Fold this sequence. Notes:
Layout: H1 5-63, H2 69-80, E1 86-89, E2 95-99, E3 105-106, H3 109-114, E4 120-121, H4 123-136, E5 140-143, E6 149-154, H5 158-226, H6 232-253, E7 261-264, H7 265-277, E8 284-290, E9 295-298, H8 300-317, E10 322-331, E11 336-343, H9 371-381, E12 385-392, E13 396-404
Parallel strand pairs: 3-4, 8-10
Antiparallel strand pairs: 1-2, 1-6, 5-6, 7-9, 10-11, 11-13, 12-13
Helix pairs in contact: 1-2, 1-5, 5-6, 7-8, 8-9
Amino acid sequence: MIINKDRLYQYEARQRWKVFLFTFAALIAGASLFYTNYLVKSLSQSERTKAEVWAMSTRSIVTMPDVDDQFISFVYAVRDSLSIPAIITNEKGNIIFWRGLDSTKTNIKELVDTADQNLVYDPIYFEKQLARMKRNHSPIDLQLDTGEVWSVYYRDSDALRQLRIFPYLQLSLIALFLIIAYTVFNSIKKTEQNLVWVGMAKEAAHQLGTPISSLMGWLELVRTKFDAEEDNILNEMERDVKRLEIVADRFSKIGSTPTLSSHMVFPVIQDFVQYFRVRTSEKITFQLTGDKTVEAKLNVPLFDWIIENLLKNAVNAIESEGKIVVNIIDNIAKEEIFIDISDTGRGIPKSNFDTVFQPGFTTRKRGWGLGLSLTKRMVDYHQGQIFVKESELGKGTTFRIILKSNLRYEPTQV
């Protein structure tokens, strides 16, 4: 298989840059998550230390004998300094003390009658909080002088819980911003490229107009001077000049919305194949098969361009002699038309099935690599699809075009 090394290198360079940028972004995201997890672990350990201090101060309050009031105040201050929610249970699992929970609720019924009327007896709330704390962390055991063991449960502070999710939220917002920015800039880039393409195409059509008109005039002059109205050579030359007129018309239509009208697909393709066959090597045979009655909405000059590009691509793929088959299939179930163009050429690697339609990708030593890219765009104009149906190295390739059928089939009444 012959590859245009310069253009392939450019394409591969773009691919490498994409991989590099994606890898770099992944490293940044990984480093951010790693550092955040490090902070979370550090803060989590710090909160557990605070919980242990709170647990020990609580045990001291319960077990210490009569001591100086100042020391007692210090111990209470230490205990009350804990900012994270916590619950103490006895050996039976009953809640005997809590900290940092909803101050308007209690699990002690007697407090509701003696305390503020706004206090609510809600043991279910405390059970839910306890279950949540058990899922978060292992308990801190308190051994009392009486031999009884209390368990201290706690959960992460609000700041720590927010820190856990912050990097994911941050990376999601950054990714969303990059996606939007990429989409916008890519759209701007494509718009600029389209404007350049349209300008160049229309200028080419304008420049071709004058010499084509002159050639038509010279042909008529030759016919008149040499009385060669039916000369086959001149007739073929005239067909080529008219073909140039069609090409110029194609370029003038780029950038404009093409007008589509209903045509029978088989004769349209047949006319072009007959024109193309006599301008190709006799070692390459052409065969047109399939349904002759299907109809689709076509812009004939642009559709001829599609077939021309695919046939040229097939001819270039055949090294010496071979065969090109165009088969038209009516898919009645989906009301679609399949046009398969097969050749016996070099074939395409599976890895290139999608990239062959990228601008600049070519398998020839010379060429811009724009034929299949333009072909895909013109198929899009016809609201159709094109793709590599199948290919095998050394055996050939089949491209498939899918168009909407202009015929509607009614189910048979039984």
